[in-house]
Amino acid sequence: MATLYNQYDKNIRLTWVYITMFLLFVIGVGYVFAGAMQSSMVLYIAVAFSTITSFISYWWSDKIVLSMSGAKELTFAENKEIYRLVENLTITAGLPLPKIYTIEDTAMNAFATGRDPKHGVICLTTGIIARLEKNELEGVIAHELSHIGNRDTLLSTVVVILVGFVALLADWFRHWAWFGGNRDSDSKNQLQVILMIAAIILSILAPLFAMLIQLAISRKREFLADASGALLTRYPEGLASALEKISTDTEPLEAANRATAHLYIANPFKGKNLTKLFMTHPPMEERVAALRGMEVK
Predict the structure, then answer these.
(1) 214, 163 Cβ separation under 8 angstroms
(2) How many helices and strands (H and E) does the chain possess?
């Protein structure tokens, strides 16, 4: 029988396996492109660009996401009950009290952001506040606090940057190849020819592979946050019941877009995906079954 603790440990191990695979994949793509173009300068420029982007994302990604979502900070006077719920759970989790934001939308959803627990933010739609019972809302808030405590908010930013880095390299290589590249075939040895063929294939497939790894990591972090949230409340049924209600909500969240969709507790678009590989979130029935299959010891 799975317990909250071994589910938590299993998800952490699998997440690090995914991250390691992703980093090796990014390094491999960069090596092949630089070899095909016979210029390590391309890789240096790309790394410098991604570093600047990382710096901007690290310091201001939370403000950018909140602005894109049209979220507004909730004051204590506006909703004392929500503040009490968040405050009690943060004390239990040993986390600083995050800022609380709301999105004026009747769709049921929520997300967390912030580079670390001291700058954590929890954002809830007005729909999820109005339509969930107290123990269900507590489960959702515990899930989002777990994202902050597990550093998922920072991890998701890093992964997005790595995916962008791969896409950037692929674009640069295709432009280089399209506008001439190194067409002096006589100067190419067998290794360079192999690298050129591999680079052409990677320039097409690498962005797709990177996105699939990003989605796999996102799904795994949702399982981890579910387990951590249940551990925090000691009542997995609260979150399970909340997820069931959210899954039956057919209303899409208008404030969401493709860049922020993976942050939410459930797919904000409510659309059907062709396969599990392209899902931003694990299937809801699997999350509910995992929560109800756990033992609180």
Answers:
(1) yes
(2) 9, 4
CA 181 to chain CA mean position, Å: 36
Give the per-residue SS3 of 252-284. CCCCCCCCCHHHECCCCCCCCCCCHHHCCCCCH
Of the residues 136, 138, 144, 222, only one is catalytic, namely: 144
Q: Which of 109, 111, 167, 189 is nearest to 144 (CA)?
A: 111
Q: DSSP secondary structure string, 120-161?
A: -EEEEEHHHHHHS-HHHHHHHHHHHHHHHHTTHHHHHHHHHH
Q: How many other CB atoms are there within 10 angstroms of residue 204's CB atom?
A: 12
Tell me what pLDDT residue 77 has.
Answer: 93
Looking at the predicted structure, is the pLDDT value of residue 155 above 80? no
Under the banding of pLDDT at 50, 70 and 90, the label for residue 126 is very high
Residue 222 is a catalytic residue:
no
How would you label 102-140 residue by residue, b for 16+ Cβ within 10 Å and e otherwise? bbebebbbbbbbbbebebbbbbbbbbbbebbeeebbbbb
Side chain identity at residue 208, one-letter code: L
- List 295's β-bridge partners, or say none: 3
> Is 273 exposed, middle or buried (CB count within 10 Å of its CB: 0-12, 13-18, 19+)?
middle
**Paired tokens of 15:** 């997440």
Measured from the Cβ of residue 201, the count of other Cβ atoms closer than 10 Å reads: 11
